[in-house]
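Q: How would the structure tokens look for this protein?
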Amino acid sequence: MLIAKRVSIWRSSYLISAEGRPVATWDSAFWKSGGTFDLDGQQYRVNANAWGTRYTLTGPDGTPLASADRVGRKNWTVQAGGQTYRFQRRSFWSTDQELHTDQGPAGSVRRTSMWGDQVAVDLPGMPMPVQIFVLGVVITMWNAQAAAAAG
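A: Here is the predicted structure in token form.
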């Protein structure tokens, strides 16, 4: 399980830890959807289309590694390494996102407090860069929803 803790109230930056050990830092893009994260000394980039419904993860060498489609809808997907991961909003009233398999819920991305400064990521079997990609996409989606509600 990963725990992402917001490091500043002024910016959407998160320190990501696994088993209490820092492993990465997520930094949201300032004027657009997406962002970057550093993992094992390598920088990964997350880019979005203009509507924030499709995201792409590129590796340190610019190679596409994963993509997310229909982000912001009740059901959305992530493709990575020849596999498709299906996500679903937990309920109409919740912003928590669940990873689903044919057997039912298998993981989640959820806020651990109502203040939104900490996020728990439980996506078993998913490669670490893809887990952080999903985290970044969800944080970006939450930020966009909060901005739309405030406007």
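The chain has one helix and twelve strands.

The chain has a mean pLDDT of 91.

Upvote if useful.
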